């Protein structure tokens, strides 16, 4: 033996409380917009979120992400100005009956949240040939989204809210933040403590869109082929419980 200490092999199973915590983070995660509090986010807590994001899975272990922390109010204001421009443009894209509803929605918390965080993707990080990306070239982008989800779930577990802002011109944002042209912006996130989390996603509560019935998006063996079996029924029952807030208490 060379004296090297090997990491402890992870346990196969989670204990009941840990398993419950994972599902709670999933079902109680929300896209936060208007309920941010001004309280600062502690550095150790923010560090845990970024670390969780960095430990996301990535194609070919290329780890294509970078993280940019934005706290200066003048920088946030420039990004917010870009959002306002894009937001007005977007409103005109909707049919008239939905246009006013769209304008009434609070879709970002750039200025209110104490921390903004940008997650990017460097598509050249591992060279031209990457294990697992040889035939699906977009796998690096998907990997970076996994980092976003890791951070989002960790934030919920830490009692922090996250809002993903996507309504702005990427080129303009890159210019404001000095991001190189070859880097892809994946997510602009608003992070902070919140006054509350909504019971359901805000757009669902605003009747913008309903949660799709899971049996309508389930296929067996061939696209469009459905089956009425025990899995289908179990999924329907679990979705009903989730919609009524009973999943954590009755299903787990």
Automatic annotation (TrEMBL):
Keywords of the record: Cobalamin biosynthesis, Flavoprotein, FMN, NAD, NADP, Nucleotide-binding, Oxidoreductase
GO biological process, one term: cobalamin biosynthetic process
Residues covered by the Nitroreductase domain: 27-193
Domain of life: Bacteria
Signal sequence annotation: none
Gene Ontology MF terms in the entry: 5,6-dimethylbenzimidazole synthase activity; nucleotide binding; oxidoreductase activity, acting on paired donors, with incorporation or reduction of molecular oxygen
Catalytic activity: FMNH2 + O2 = dialurate + 5,6-dimethylbenzimidazole + D-erythrose 4-phosphate + H(+)
EC number(s) reported in the record: 1.13.11.79
UniProt cross-references to Gene3D superfamilies, sorted A to Z: NADH Oxidase
SUPFAM superfamilies (UniProt xref): FMN-dependent nitroreductase-like
UniProt xrefs under InterPro entries: BluB, Nitroreductase, Nitroreductase-like, Nitroreductase/BluB
Cross-referenced Pfam families: Nitroreductase
EC primary class: oxidoreductase
CDD domains named among the record's database cross-references: BluB
Self-association state and partner proteins as the record states: Homooctamer.
Family label: Belongs to the BluB family.
Protein name, per record: 5,6-dimethylbenzimidazole synthase
Source organism of the structure: Terasakiella brassicae
